[in-house]
Amino acid sequence: MTAIEAGAIVMDTAKCAVAVRAANGDFLHLVRPSGISWEARASDVRPATDAEALSVKVAIANRNSQGKWGR
Hints:
By secondary structure, the chain is an alpha+beta fold. It is 23% helix and 31% strand. The protein contains 1 helix and 5 strands, in the order E-E-E-E-E-H. 18% of the residues are buried.
């Protein structure tokens, strides 16, 4: 398996959850756009599909835009 770098959007197949790889190290530290984080086994993680990555990117954009519209 190719190394998954920090910042990569990945799917944790054990949790059925898409997240962002938070940091490089021995364990895969994953963070959802909601802020929930966990450690994952490398064998349970694969690169996200385009659709899965888009879901995370939209969630991050929505979170970052909260309170900015209508001012």
